[in-house]
C-alpha cells in the first residue's frame, strides 16, 4: 500500500467541516486551522524525525500524550487525559510480503476538535477512512471519526480470522483422511498464528470496553452505540480464536493418536513376522552347525524334506495365531 507523505512525516490531513464533507489540507491549511472551522484529522509516520519534532514542539499536546504518540512499543489501551482520549490499538498487517499476525500498532489522540494518529508501517484501515472522506460520506464529529476508524480497523481483521478458520478446517480434513507427520508443522504454524492474533486482540477488546465507559463530553451516544457494535464484533473474533485453540488441541490429540495407531500397526506386523520366523531361524541355525551327526547330511532328499517340515511349522503357527485371534 502506497501512502503519499506531504512533508514533516505527515501522511494525510483532513478537515471535516459540513455534514460529512471533508477536504485535504496542506501545512499552510493546518497552521491556519482553528476549532471553529471543523474537526481536524492528522495522520503521521511517527518514525519521521520532522513528525516527531512537530508532535513534541508544535502540536500543543501535553508532553505525556506526545511521548505516547511516538513510543516504539505500545499495548492496546485507552486512557482519559483531561477531556481527550489517548488510545493505542493494533491492526492486522496486510502489507505485501508480511504476516497478518505481525500486528501494526496505531496510536491516537482524540478530543472534541481533532484526531491525531501515528503509525510506522502502513495501515489499510487509515486508507479506507481517507477514501470515505474523499467521497464526502465521512463523519461530522471527532467521535464519529474515531469510531469509523476503529470500525475499519476491526473489519479488516475478518479476512484474517476467516483464513485461520479455513486452514484449520483443511487440516482437520487431512488429519481425518490421511494423518501423518507432515501435518504437524502445518498445525504448529496455524497455532502460532492463532496465539499471536489473540495476544493482541484480547487486550484490544479491553481497550474498547474501557473506551465505552469513558465520560468524554464530546463522545455522543450514537457514537457509543456504533462503537458497542464494533466491540461486539471484536469479541466474536476473540471467541472464535479461543474456539480455534480448542479445536487445535483436539486436532493435535487426534493426530498423535493416529500416528500412534499407525506405529502400533507397523510394530504389530513386524512382531507377527518375527514370531513366524523365530522357530524357523532356530531350526535352520540348529541344523547349520558344522559338527558331525547332523540328520540327513548324507541323504539327497533331506533338503526338500526339511523345507516341507518348515512349511508345516509355518502352517501350525498361522493356525495357532488365528485360533488365538492374534490377527
Helical content stands at 55-70%
List the secondary-structure elements in sequence, H or E: EEHEHHEEEEHHHHHH
Shape: rod-shaped
Average pLDDT number: 85
Rounded to the nearest angstrom, the radius of gyration is 35 Å
Major sheet: 7 strands, mixed
CATH class bucket: Alpha Beta
Question: In DSSP terms, counting alpha (H) and pi (I) runs of 4 or more, how many helices?
Answer: 9
Strand composition percent: 5-15%
How many domains? The number is 1
Known CATH architecture: 2-Layer Sandwich
**Which spans have pLDDT < 50 for at least 5 consecutive residues?**
none
Strand line-up in the sheet with most strands: 2-1-3-7-6-5-4
Keywords:
single chain, 327 residues, alpha+beta, Beta Polymerase, domain 2, seven-stranded mixed sheet
Tell me what you see in this structure:
- The chain has nine helices and seven strands.
- α5 runs parallel beside α8 (221-287).
- The chain is an alpha+beta fold and 327 residues long.
- It has helices at residues 27-32, 49-57, 63-70, 124-134, 142-155, 158-177, 182-213, 221-287, 302-323, and strands at residues 10-18, 21-24, 39-45, 77-81, 84-91, 104-110, 114-119.
- Strands 2-1-3-7-6-5-4 form a seven-stranded mixed beta sheet, with helices on both faces.
- The relative contact order is 0.09.
- It has a single domain, classed as Beta Polymerase, domain 2 (2-Layer Sandwich), CATH 3.30.460.20.
- The two termini are 63 Å apart.
Amino acid at each position: 500500500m502506497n501512502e503519499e507523505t506531504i512533508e514533516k512525516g505527515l501522511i494525510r490531513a483532513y478537515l471535516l467541516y459540513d455534514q460529512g464533507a471533508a477536504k485535504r489540507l496542506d501545512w499552510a491549511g493546518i497552521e491556519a486551522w482553528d476549532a471553529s472551522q471543523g474537526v481536524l484529522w492528522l495522520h503521521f509516520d511517527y518514525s519521521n524525525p520532522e513528525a516527531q519534532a512537530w508532535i513534541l514542539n508544535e502540536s500543543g499536546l501535553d508532553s505525556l500524550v506526545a511521548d505516547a504518540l511516538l513510543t516504539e512499543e505500545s499495548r492496546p489501551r485507552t486512557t482519559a487525559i483531561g477531556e481527550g482520549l489517548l488510545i493505542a490499538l493494533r491492526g492486522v498487517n496486510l502489507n505485501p510480503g508480511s504476516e497478518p499476525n505481525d500486528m501494526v500498532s496505531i496510536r491516537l489522540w482524540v478530543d472534541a476538535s481533532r484526531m491525531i494518529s501515528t503509525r510506522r508501517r502502513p495501515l489499510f484501515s487509515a486508507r479506507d477512512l481517507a477514501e470515505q472522506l474523499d467521497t464526502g460520506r465521512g463523519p461530522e464529529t471527532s467521535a464519529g471519526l474515531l469510531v469509523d476508524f476503529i470500525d475499519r480497523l476491526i473489519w479488516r481483521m475478518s479476512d484474517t480470522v476467516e483464513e485461520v478458520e479455513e486452514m484449520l478446517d483443511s487440516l482437520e480434513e487431512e488429519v481425518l483422511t490421511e494423518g501423518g507427520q507432515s501435518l504437524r508443522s502445518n498445525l504448529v504454524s496455524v497455532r502460532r498464528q492463532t496465539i499471536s492474533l489473540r495476544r493482541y486482540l484480547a487486550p484490544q477488546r479491553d481497550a474498547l470496553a474501557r473506551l465505552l465507559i469513558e465520560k468524554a463530553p464530546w463522545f455522543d451516544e450514537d457514537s457509543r452505540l456504533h462503537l458497542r457494535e464494533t466491540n461486539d464484533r471484536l469479541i466474536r473474533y476473540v471467541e472464535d480464536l479461543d474456539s480455534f485453540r480448542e479445536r487445535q488441541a483436539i486436532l493435535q490429540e487426534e493426530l498423535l493418536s493416529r500416528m500412534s495407531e499407525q506405529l502400533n500397526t507397523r510394530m504389530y506386523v513386524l512382531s507377527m513376522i518375527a514370531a513366524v520366523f523365530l522357530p524357523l531361524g532356530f531350526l535352520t541355525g540348529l541344523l547349520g552347525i558344522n559338527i558331525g551327526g547332523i540328520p540327513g547330511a548324507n541323504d539327497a532328499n533331506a533338503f526338500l524334506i526339511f523345507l516341507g517340515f518348515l512349511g508345516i511349522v509355518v502352517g501350525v503357527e498361522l493356525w495357532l495365531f488365528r485360533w488365538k485371534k492374534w490377527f
